[in-house]
Design brief:
five-stranded mixed sheet, Alpha-Beta Plaits, alpha+beta, 54% helix, 16% strand
């Protein structure tokens, strides 16, 4: 699995983007106040507020799959969910090399849809954290849910428009009960790595004192 940016880096980038957008909004508002009077001010304010909300939503959304992204995950996990399920595809580098980046992206979109189908109805949330890694925050028993998610990923996927290609992939899952905001991803990643060391399509639950968390 590849190295990802730290939460601090992502948060800093998000804050910087928000600051730039906010500064631009203030410039527009002051200009409106100088040129247009009260009515123009009200219209400009509504438009700028809407633009800020859209920018904030976009900053929390993965552009490829439409899922919530890592920034949204960091906010959501502060709500103290019952469990975190971290999912990562098995052999993704080989799969991407065989089918190409475009079809691999198509595969990720299909898998994101399947994960959403299995989480939305129960009120659980799914996030795309990086290239082929997803996270699910749930207030339900994570074991059965992880089994359903892995089964959904393992179903054959039809890719391509001009010619059809059937692809089958598997994934492993790392589960953390009562995830702590500061350590959740490290513990889930440790369980995930243990699962992958045991083979494809496996699930491992993080156990303090048994699994030694690495760096994330």
């Amino acid at each position: 699995m590849t190295t990802v940016p730290t939460t601090a880096t992502i948060t800093t980038a998000t804050i910087t983007t928000t600051a730039i957008i906010t500064a631009a909004v203030l410039i527009v508002l002051f200009t409106a106040a100088a040129l247009g009077g009260a009515a123009f001010w009200r219209r400009a304010t509504r438009r700028c507020v809407a633009a800020l909300r859209q920018a904030d939503a976009a900053a929390r959304r993965d552009p490829l799959t439409g899922l919530s992204n890592r920034t949204a995950f960091q906010h959501a996990i502060t709500g103290r969910p019952a469990a975190l399920i971290l999912l990562n595809l098995d052999g993704s580098a080989t799969c991407r090399r065989l089918i190409g980046d475009r079809m691999f992206d198509e595969l990720l979109v299909i898998l994101a849809g399947r994960l959403t189908q299995h989480t939305d109805a129960a009120g659980d949330r799914v996030f795309r954290l990086r290239r082929d890694e997803f996270a699910v925050l749930t207030d339900h028993a994570p074991g059965p849910l992880a089994d359903r998610l892995l089964a959904a990923i393992a179903e054959p996927a039809e890719l391509g428009s001009s010619f059809a290609v059937t692809v089958e992939v598997t994934a492993c899952a790392g589960v953390v009960h009562q995830p702590n905001t500061r350590t959740a991803l490290r513990h889930a990643d440790t369980a995930l790595r243990t699962a992958k060391n045991g083979g494809r399509g496996r699930t491992v639950v993080f156990t303090p004192g048994v699994h030694q968390p690495g760096t994330r």
